[in-house]
TrEMBL record, chain A:
CDD domains: TM_PBP2. One of its GO terms (cellular component) is plasma membrane. This is ABC transmembrane type-1 domain-containing protein. The keyword Cell membrane applies. Keywords: Cell membrane, Membrane, Transmembrane, Transmembrane helix, Transport. The chain crosses the membrane at residues 42-69, 124-145, 157-177, 204-226, 263-283, 312-331. It comes from Haloprofundus marisrubri. PROSITE patterns: ABC_TM1 (PS50928). It is a multi-pass membrane protein.
TrEMBL record, chain B:
It is a multi-pass membrane protein. This is ABC transmembrane type-1 domain-containing protein. The chain crosses the membrane at residues 23-42, 83-109, 121-144, 150-169, 206-229, 249-273. Belongs to the binding-protein-dependent transport system permease family. It comes from the Archaea.
Amino acid sequence: MALEEGDASGEDSFGSAARDYLGRGRTAAGRRMGVSEDQDNLMGWLFVAPNVFVFSTFLLGPVLFAFYVSFQEWSILRNAGEFIGIENYLTVLQPLPVTTNGLNLSVFTNPTENLFWYSLKNTFVYAIGTVPLQILGGLAVALMLDKRVRAKKAYRAAYFMPVMLSGAASAVMWRWFLSADGVINSFLRPIGLAHNWAGDPATALGGVMLMAVWGGIGSNMIFFLAGLQNIPEELYEAARIDGASRWHLFRHVTWPNLGNTNFFVIVMAVISAFQVFGIALVFSEGGPYYATTTTVLLIYQRAFDEGLMGEGAAMAFILFLIIFVFSYYQYRHQRSGEVEY
Amino acid sequence: MARSSYEYPGYERSGVGYWSKTALLYAVVTAGALWMTLPFWWTITTSLSANPQASEVTFIPAAVTLQNFVQLWERPDILLVRWFINTVIFAGAVTLFNLTFDSLAGYALAKLDFWGRDKLFLGFISTMMIPGMVTLIPVYLILVELNWTNTYQGLIAPLIAGPFGIFLLRQHFKSLPTSLGEAARIDGCNEFQTFYKIYLPLAKPALATLAIFTFMGAWNNFQWPLIIANENEMYTLPVALFAVRNQYFAEWGLMMAAALIIVAPVLVAFLAAQNYFIRGMSLSGMKG
């Protein structure tokens, strides 16, 4: 987003100067054809009207509506609510992990105490376990395929195949591979490591993460391949003339020049990791013993299985806040990093 | 594209060092590629065996049978054709609407000059930061009010426009020369004709990329159809797969056959038009 903003404003300062010269914000052609400024405005807004309508009805309006619902006790039957203040937020958040008597960290380890904090822990474990592997895996594959590998197109297709897959389909597949009598265990049994991976609360989330890494490397590979192609060859030439080693080339040419790609890839990966839902639901329905209950899965169960729309909306807003803080932090970090080069 | 890594002293393409490094590179890349593709092979072999045992499907199926596919066809609660048609209608309509609305908006934001244009574009792009799950509950409640649950319009409506399409098409229209439109206007085209007759045909590659991408996204979409369609007749394929999984849990042959039916069309399309998919993916990365 940072890049886009920069682009638009840079181009605009030139564009608006030209337009000022030609006459008050209108194109030369428009003026010549005797089109008035009002007609220009009308035309432009007519073209964007369908999108403005859809965005306000299904995106911006609903965000405000969700905020409203989170302060209501919502009745599914009447499809209307009753104002109850911050009660939904209190129900969701209590007992708090930090109290006046000190820390109460058992909310993160005991699902019966407060499922929201427990689901948040699951979501963080999932994010911390998958995002770095998806990104570093994608980068590693991109670096290897960027070299002179024969049959590059076939390799690229192989790595991209899991990206094509519906999350529901891949969850069903991996549930079978990781089940007690599944394919993975037929490899592990000879070395004595066979285990009911999907059925054990200690390993079920690991199974979901394995599946997510498998499905996430391909798209990051494509982003990095595109990023690598945008690095001018002269930079490498210059560094080599200065006697840079392979590692130095990567550290001081490739890595800094992937700055924008890194930012985008990290933000997108984290945002989608915090929203993991479908694969966890289809893989194990949040079980066994809440081991794969992620926050969005909990929102889904509260709102659509139990009909507690207000609580669901409150949880959604808390998660939204976490995602927003993270994106903003990354954005600031990215901005300060740009000075280096 | 051609990296001249080997074209200066120290990086010659010869010697034990070079060849062992190359061998290692291929070993790693191939092992990774196997990890990516073997699950697809296991899905195929499992779907082709009657009563799958893991040892029988690992590499080559022991006895090939189409029994699972026949079962999918014959069980009365599995409405395969209906689900397939639902998914085609859903994904097709979503794609069509996105192409129409996003090309109109993308064109206006690139080529027309109107009040608030750049702020509007920034606004569209910023919505990419709104996590989908925040709008899930309110959009559902709105559609309940409209009585649109378990209808095609309910499935389709919330997905008919998106910031990615607007961004992609705006960039494409921006790259086309403005003089084309000026010439068309002098020849008497109005704004809409200029868009429809002059610029739109030139945007075909971008439209194809967006179409493939949107169709695939809707085809695979699980979250929204799960919430809005909860009657058997209105399921789309991914939601149906979840329902089948709950009904026939542990009948793995049947489930892999069902998974394959969802995956196959997308995979065939991908292998046929790989470049469009890759291009769409890398363009979606450039929003950053």
